[in-house]
Amino acid sequence: MDPLKARVRLGYSRSWVVRKYSLIGLWPSEVHLTRKFFAPGSRLLDIGCGAGRTSIPLAQAGHEIVAVDLATPMVAQTHALAEFAGCRVRGVAADAAILPFPANTFDGVLFSYNGIELVPREAGKRAVLSEVFRTLRPGGHFIFTTHALEAFNRYAWDRLQRVLDQLGRMLTFRSIADEEFGEIIPDPSRNVEVYYMQINSPRKYRRMLRSTGFGLRYFNSRSRIDALKPPGWLADFDGDFKFYVAQKP
Ligand SMILES: C[S@@+](CC[C@H](N)C(=O)[O-])C[C@H]1O[C@@H](n2cnc3c(N)ncnc32)[C@H](O)[C@@H]1O
């Protein structure tokens, strides 16, 4: 396994991280979008399911759920919490870039809480998008969220410094071969949740979706959805998470 991916798996396999993700419930923005884009009784794939935060309420809402996570302890916790909640979720430990399902299996796919940013490198994210495209049935929707490189929030100054540092290295011909734009790779000796993350611009995700074959049906920020504001260019820049709804033609 790619060493960066192995770090992500290790990070999300620790018991305190599993406990942290054990609060079950969809965000209001997720309730809104899953009702709008997942028809009642859909067969859904919940990628990066964590401890079942989204899988369990979607199963309770009447969908058939297959839940996938890179970290086996997360899948075990999803099973335990689903049983406790009295609903059925089929959990599978798997990598989103190599999904163990036939083509055209799912009516809808979810990769919530910025999970796609934990997939190392642009090539890794493209592999995930291709797998989601392959396993979705034609007409099916894929909902996911990200941060944004250009978002105005309390992390904006840190992000700007990192971007300037990377630009400086490119301009002075110092190697950036070991790092891609937007990557955050904390020292592995620190007991932090995230051992790898890459924050891109929504423009980049739009490009990647287009080149995979998806159509982007909806894009908005979480706070704008919560405030019932329509999509618009401002959504790229506010401080909140970004929601994408892509459709396989
Ligand atoms: C930020 S957590 C979110 C968990 C859950 N979706 C939630 O909202 O509570 C991201 C999850 O994605 C999983 N993940 C990261 N990379 C993955 C990959 N390549 N394939 C499958 N799951 C992955 C992690 O193990 C982690 O459980």
Question: Could you walk me through the main structural features you see in this protein, from its secondary elements to its overall organization?
Answer:
The chain is α/β, with parallel strands linked by helices and 249 residues long. It has one domain (3-247): Rossmann fold, CATH 3.40.50. The protein contains nine helices and nine strands. It has a seven-stranded mixed sheet, sandwiched between helices. It has a two-stranded antiparallel ribbon with strand order 6-7. The mean pLDDT is 92. Bound molecules: S-adenosylmethionine. S-adenosylmethionine binds next to strand 2.
Order of helices and strands: HHHEHEHEEHEHEEHEHE
Number of DSSP-assigned strands: 9
Amount of helix:
25-40%
Total domains: 1
What is the highest CATH level, the class?
Alpha Beta
Name the poorly predicted regions: none
Which architecture would the CATH scheme give at its second level? 3-Layer(aba) Sandwich
Reading side by side through the largest sheet, how are the strands ordered? 3-2-1-4-5-9-8
Strand content: 15-25%
Distinct compounds present? S-adenosylmethionine
Largest sheet: 7 strands, mixed
In CATH terms, what is the fold-level topology?
Rossmann fold
The separation of the N and C termini measures 32 Å
Query: CATH superfamily name?
Result: Vaccinia Virus protein VP39
| Radius of gyration, whole Å | 18 Å
Number of helices: 9
Q: Per the principal axes of the C-alpha atoms, what is the gross shape?
A: globular
Give the overall pLDDT as a whole number. Answer: 92
**Structural class, from helix and strand content?**
alpha/beta
